[in-house]
């Protein structure tokens, strides 16, 4: 009766929290003109290996199907959406796509992430444009605003900027060296500097040079802050980074800062990269993204650039819990209760009528006593109580479950216009 390691069931409250985020995400997705789709949950293993190679097998679920084909469960939406776009030879560009759903990763389970979890994802495909990056970051900022999260910061960087500095310090353009040092930079948020220096010293890298890169990765702040701390004339792509930040300021997005330590772990990123954090939390990144033109090229589409972002839903829910802003489930529901068995028929009739008027309504089906029926009223905004004395006068009792006040209302008025009587829309 046990689940496989890293798997979990999602109960009513968790599902309500996920749906709350999905609702806000889909609203914004539509507002910004993104087409919502659901890419296949199963891909050919060769598709998922397109950019990362066979090494990706250690991080995903893969198996042979009954046709002896090697297939795998999706580990994100970017691969599937990019595969889809690459196959659409006549699609009008730029194409703006979004997705929301479950993904699978064979990672070590940790707080805020199981091996099956939920992501939201936004992608723009077409001619490379820094305004596309700005729009992706803008909608990301607006999503966290719409969820009422506080103290959110978006750390932004440019992969080429860091790579050019690595080339300079190590006097090498060896792709394997650059990739290794980027991994070292990416680990600084999870490990101490000494741990990283020891690990990469064993791989043959000079500690003095690596330490210089790690110190560089600690630089963060506004454009003015960074220009005071470092000679930016040494850096490639600094102008592009400034341009995106200027564009975001123009769009009214002010919670952005430069952070030379943001490089994103995946090999396919090629330009602007960013991650989203709660400044007061230790949970890690809530979302991340950037430009990944190398992935579309790997799918044989040299003519298409791509930029996007994805966020972990469960991790956002944990942050909302930390900030005490999880929405209450009890709003806008009604519970119909009955004093005794004789009142049950009338109570069911009222319940059906409210449901026909699209009012979410609960009623006990087991014929339990009044005290036990109150369990279902815990999730309700109002309770309607059907009792013999009130019913004899053509009334029922309406109880406010927030402040505990109650009074009688006409059953005739309730059945004629339940929406205005209960007035749930204005709550």
From TrEMBL:
Amino acids binding L-histidine: 76-78, 105, 119, 123, 264, 268-269
A GO MF term: ATP binding
UniProt key word Heme: no
The entry's keywords: Aminoacyl-tRNA synthetase, ATP-binding, Ligase, Nucleotide-binding, Protein biosynthesis
GO biological process: one example: histidyl-tRNA aminoacylation
Top-level division of the source organism's lineage: Archaea
Domain Aminoacyl-transfer RNA synthetases class-II family profile positions: 57-360
EC class name: ligase
EC assignment: 6.1.1.21
Family membership noted in the UniProt record: Belongs to the class-II aminoacyl-tRNA synthetase family.
Designated name of the protein: Histidine--tRNA ligase
Organism: Candidatus Nitrosopumilus salarius BD31
Gene name for this UniProt entry: hisS
